[in-house]
Amino acid sequence: MLAVATVCAAPVLASYLAFYVVRPAGAPRAGMLVQPPRELPADLSLAGLDGRPVAPASLRGQWLLVVVAPSSCGEACERRLFLQRQLREMLGRERDRVDKLWLLPDAGRPAPALQAAVEAAPAVTLLRADAAALARWLGPAEAEDALLIVDPMGREMMRLPAGADPSLARRDLERLLRASAFWDRPGR
Predict the structure, then answer these.
(1) Which of 5, 165, 167, 179 lies 20 to 30 Å (CA to CA) from residue 43?
(2) What is the pLDDT of residue 141?
(3) Alpha-carbon gap, residue 167 to 120, rounded angstroms
(4) Residue 80 φ/ψ, nearest 5 degrees
(5) Number of Cβ within a 10 Å radius of residue 58
(6) 169 CB neighbour count, 10 Å cutoff
(7) Sign of the alpha-carbon dihedral angle for 145, 96, 172, 165
(8) Could you tell me which SUPFAM superfamilies the record lists for this protein (predicted)?
(9) ∠ CA 99-140-132 to the nearest 5 degrees?
(10) How far apart are CA 177 and CA 166, in angstroms?
């Protein structure tokens, strides 16, 4: 009878030992979930580089990798744009569910070489946005030092730091895409 009790109690004891002594850590993450997710404001004034207004609702229906940076894009900004491009391409067949967006909080134009690079297929959508409205939506100023992930319903879900490990960032993004696979479809 003592042997039966030991066999029955062993899994419970092993679980307590694993939880309180071994303390298994979860999978490492590159990004930080935004709690609570911030909704894309309907009154956010967006415009293309040509000055035509763009409705914020038109950005819904697709996962977005968002870079917020001024048009005088420095080295850190270029690294975020490169990470944005690489992350989308690393997704393989799921990449059609993700668009790239660069929000410009100023009135300048990117350097011609940089603009040509980001407009190469698959192009980054370049939009001007009011800096004050962006600050209200995104909160702290460190949004300009991160790559933002916005879900198809227009909510900021995750921030990837500027120096994020691309393989860990890809894993985080794949988890988000897998979790939304039953309701999200490619394209807008």
Answers:
(1) 179
(2) 58
(3) 24
(4) -65, -40
(5) 11
(6) 23
(7) negative
(8) Thioredoxin-like
(9) 80
(10) 16
Round to whole Å and give the CA distance between 165 and 73.
21
Give 124-142 pLDDT, tens digit per residue.
889 999 888 888 888 765 5
Q: Token pair of 5, please?
A: 């009790």
Report the Cα 163 to chain-centroid distance in Å. 14
Domains, the chain, in order of start with CATH, read 30-180 (3.40.30.10)
Give the per-residue pLDDT at 181.
76
Q: Using CA atoms, how far apart are residues 66 and 81, in angstroms rounded to an integer?
A: 9
For residues 74-111, one letter each, b for 16 or more C-beta atoms within 10 angstroms of the residue's C-beta and e for the rest, the string is eeebeebbebbbebbebbeebbebbbbbbbbbeeeebe
Instruction: Work out the average pLDDT over 64-88.
Output: 89
Residue 53: per-residue pLDDT = 92
Report pTM: 0.80
